[in-house]
Design a protein that fits this description.
- The complex is a heterodimer of chains A (256) and B (243).
- With 256 residues, chain A is mostly helical.
- Chain A folds into 2 domains: 1-117 and 223-253; 118-131 and 140-213, Cd81 Antigen, Extracellular Domain, Chain: A (Orthogonal Bundle), CATH 1.10.1450.
- Helix content of chain A is 72%, strand content 0%.
- Chain A contains 10 helices and no strands.
- Chain A is elongated.
- With 243 residues, chain B is α/β, with parallel strands linked by helices.
- Chain B has a domain at 13-167: Immunoglobulins (Immunoglobulin-like), CATH 2.60.40.
- Chain B is built from 2 helices and 8 strands; from the N terminus they run ββββββββαα.
- Residues 5-14 and 213-217 of chain B have low confidence and may be disordered.
- Classes of the chains: A mainly alpha (256), B alpha/beta (243).
- Chains A and B meet through helix 1, helix 4, helix 5, helix 7 and helix 9 of A and strand 6 and helix 1 of B.
Chain lengths: 256, 243
């Protein structure tokens, strides 16, 4: 009997440890998702303009799942210590529901990340940048965001200044190709915001214009957010799977 | 910092053939050709013998190049930029004197000519020698012509055909998703399998409710074990003793 007692105690200890980790990870997940939801700087207006808010939905689900994981981990610890069949059954069922929600959040975040290709931003930029339609406010947002992006990151277009030459655009309709082969924001600007050498910029002399594309500057922060939500959630779910299996095994051995 | 020199020079002389073929610049510039402009190397050290001439650039469509008559005067209706390409088949522009093309070329300087850079006079009929933006993708041929007064004294060969860039419509950009990444597929498959296992475990738990799971010893609530008290004869005898 002593050996079985030891096994029981070890299993209880492991389950309690597993639940503590789940509780802490739940809090971390909540904190991270709150950060993603509230962090609306940088290229966020471009995402809003693509009308793809999946990462937002995934992050909101993540907040509530994190809180639920924390609460359920406490319930689980109590249930393991008191070896109560009812408590543990409630724990397992609620955990499965939380698992399902978190699964949805992870898959949504991963799918959203896949949809943010350079072509998506290229098409949006060509159609909306400098589109002089006074009715649509979102186009002004896109223009302002792109100007800020190109100024701060010293980049031009999505793949490079040749985007403006390879494709027709709303910008091209109002700005002639000879005067503006690419927008003025692609030029190296001085402290007052005017090009250092306008002719050099129009010719494309290196040193007077920004030759690299902005896609890295856009996708960097967005990918960081998405990876955080998707892969951290995945790691939590793998750990939760192990703890739940252990709990089910423990439950089936409790004397009723 | 590389100083830029954009030069416009006029002078010219008799029809001597100068061994130079104008070409797109070899410099590494992003805007060597755009949709309506292109960049040539300046004709440095080419017209050395014609120091009093005005050097013009003749631009023509590829198919009309060899029909150009050297005695056509610049700045007339026959060579006006605003009437190019129809009915004017070749226009003359960028007139400068040889002083603007000093020889030898200083090392490190970018010496180029941007054809098509003047947009202000593109519609102005009073400026027939305007260096206006080109009206289409071409192909175009150019040559330099040196005139003294109105007499052509030297010319270069026609350049190779120069084709400008054409812009595609943004609708040609594919926006349908190009498939799913490995990461997303991995997440979906693994999580679905884990969830399925957990559901199966839950079902197994509920189905076998009440029966011992195979092989494991039951571990009960040791803390709440109650010890049954057994009555001994000694206890029953006592009331009888009191009576």
């Amino acid at each position: 009997m002593a050996k079985s007692d030891d096994c029981v105690h070890i299993l209880q200890g492991l389950l309690i440890f597993g639940n503590v980790v789940i509780g802490l990870c739940g809090i971390a997940l909540t904190a991270e998702c709150i950060y993603v939801v509230s962090n609306s700087d940088g290229p966020y207006p471009l995402l809003k303009a693509t009308e793809n808010r999946d990462i937002h939905a995934a992050a909101w689900i993540g907040i509530f799942v994190g809180l639920a994981l924390f609460a359920l981990s406490i319930l689980g610890i109590i249930g393991v210590v008191r070896a109560s069949r009812t408590l543990l059954l409630v724990y397992i069922i609620l955990m499965l529901i939380t698992f399902a929600f978190e699964m949805a959040s992870c898959i949504t975040a991963a799918t959203h990340q896949d949809s943010l290709t350079p072509d998506l931003f290229l098409k949006q930029m060509l159609e909306r940048y400098q589109k002089s339609d006074p009715n649509k406010n979102s186009d002004n947002e896109v223009t302002k965001t792109w100007d800020e992006l190109m100024r701060q990151n010293h980049c031009c277009g999505v793949n490079g200044p040749s985007d403006w030459q390879d494709y027709m655009s709303a910008f091209r309709l109002t700005h002639s190709d000879a005067d503006y082969p690419w927008p003025r924001m692609c030029c190296v600007l001085d402290a007052q915001g005017s090009p250092v050498n306008l002719d050099g910029c129009k010719l494309g002399v290196s040193g007077y214009y920004n030759s690299n594309g902005c896609y890295d500057a856009i996708s960097g922060p967005v990918n960081a957010h998405t990876w955080g939500v998707a892969w951290f959630g995945f790691a939590i779910l793998c750990w939760t799977f192990c703890v739940l299996l252990g709990t089910m095994f423990y439950w089936s051995g409790i004397e009723y | 910092m590389l100083p830029l020199l954009l030069l416009l020079l006029p002078t010219a002389h008799g029809i001597g053939k100068v061994s130079n073929k104008p070409a797109l610049t070899q410099e590494k510039l992003e805007g060597v050709t755009t949709a309506s402009t292109f960049v040539l190397d300046q004709p440095r050290c080419v017209f050395n013998n014609y120091s009093t001439a005005v050097i013009w650039l003749v631009v023509a469509l590829d198919k009309d190049a060899y029909a150009f008559n050297n005695s056509a005067g610049p700045g007339t209706n026959e060579t006006a930029f605003q009437r190019f390409p129809d009915p004017v088949h070749a226009y003359m522009t960028l007139n400068v004197t040889l002083n603007s093309y000093p020889c030898p070329k200083p090392a490190g300087d970018i010496t180029v000519l941007r054809v098509g850079s003047e947009t202000s006079c593109a519609q102005d009929e009073t400026r027939p020698t305007c260096n206006g933006p080109l009206p289409g993708p071409g192909p175009y041929r150019v040559k330099f012509l040196a005139l003294e007064g109105s007499v052509p004294v030297a010319e270069t060969d026609w350049s190779a055909p120069i084709t400008l860039r054409t812009a595609k419509s943004p609708n040609s950009i594919p926006t349908t998703s190009s498939g799913h990444s490995a990461g997303m597929i991995a997440i979906t498959t693994i999580l679905s399998i884990l969830f399925a296992i957990l559901l199966a475990g839950l079902v197994a738990m509920l189905v076998f409710w009440g029966s011992d799971s195979c092989g494991s010893s039951t571990f009960g609530k040791q803390e709440s074990v109650s010890v049954r008290r057994y009555n001994t004869h000694h206890v029953y005898d006592q009331p009888a003793a009191r009576l």
